[in-house]
Amino acid sequence: MKIYDIETVPSRKKYDVAIIGGANMGSAVASFLALNKDFSGSVLVIEKDMTFQFASTGASNDCMRQQFANDINILIAQFGAKYVKNFREFMGGDPEVPNLTIRNFGYLYLSDNDDFTEVLKRDQQTQSRLGAGTQMVTPEQIAEAYPFYKLDDIVAGSLNVVDEGYWDAPTMLKWQIRKAKEHGVEYVQNEVIGLDMAENKVVGVRLKSGESITVGKLVNAAGPRARVISNMAGIEVPIEPRRRYTFTFKAKKPLDRDLPLTIDPTGVHFRQEGDNYLVGCPPMIGDPAVDFDDFGFEDGIWEKKLAPILANRIPAFADIEIIDAWVGHYEFNTWDCNAIVGAHSKIKNFYFVNGFSGHGTQQAPSMGLGLSELITYGEYRTLDLSPFSYSRLERGERLIERAVI
Ligand SMILES: Cc1cc2nc3c(=O)[nH]c(=O)nc-3n(C[C@H](O)[C@H](O)[C@H](O)COP(=O)(O)OP(=O)(O)OC[C@H]3O[C@@H](n4cnc5c(N)ncnc54)[C@H](O)[C@@H]3O)c2cc1C
What positions does the domain FAD dependent oxidoreductase occupy (predicted)? Predict the structure, then answer.
């Protein structure tokens, strides 16, 4: 991603809002604040690496779907699709802003057993009630629409090709940053190393370069490092970095139509990537937290895990050539795989926008809008994000999102 012309030291000593992290979440919040005529405060975004190379954002596969299990996540996905399809309008109507589109190859969940088929059926009913285009499909229907799959073990699937697929999320982020800056948001490439607290409030941030900045409100948009920032305020959050692998590849014999983002019963998922293909997966054994800076591959992940699964599901993928590969970190919420958003119950000027567990790129527009409303008006006005409040953790309540890929 392009490195922006960027300062390292803030121009002022005091800001109404400081956002730690300028990637998907931080810049979504910043751009919605900047473009809201009712908000007139000063905003500082502190981002330690504006290339986003090691951020979750930089590793994202940039796909969106409505096939979630919770109402709120489906509504969030629908707003995300609306935002992408009306991007220029959301960016203030500037004709220079590109129109973004969704490549609707869809998502196809495959089930190889009756229990999971029942789960998919329940989710399909939830999604359908909220207007999503998901349909349950039989192996025969899948074979007719996509003759390239081997389906002998498959009992059923769920498929939606409306507003599900890929979009150009890096361009979205680039324009969010540009518009935020045009409307007065200041970005600095620097690292927050401490918070100053007084009477249950965050009053300042300390930067690695030595400056201390006074802040009115603080937004934690630090991705997998959300816990590090929270700990600076004496708060615990159940968020940890978990490793995910992505490979892109060319097939010697390409498929004759778009490959939906297919979630194989093994948990491996693959999809169309331009004229080529992309495959992603969790580790081979378990899914442990890893070090923040650990982006290493497991030995044999391609040969032992991915290659056999791909060739089994799509025989044409027995003959492929790897183009690229990378490791990224999910900012995984171990409590219930859902976001933690909004103000802390006691430190009321500390705002979370964390824990997206693998679906944060598509949720960034809704989260940016929601948090900007909470900061501006003291309430959510478009989408009620209060089910994601930190207080659910204090009450011991889980809002489990089952459909995590
Ligand atoms: C392999 C992979 C594939 C994915 N695919 C998808 C997908 O298809 N669709 C989807 O919706 N989501 C996907 N996701 C999830 C998505 O990428 C994340 O949920 C989303 O990018 C989270 O954005 P964020 O801004 O919260 O975190 P991040 O992108 O991690 O950004 C946090 C930022 O905070 C900065 N920071 C941290 N600490 C400090 C500090 N002390 N001082 C200053 N800056 C700091 C970091 O440098 C970083 O840039 C995927 C994730 C991975 C790993």
Answer: 16-373
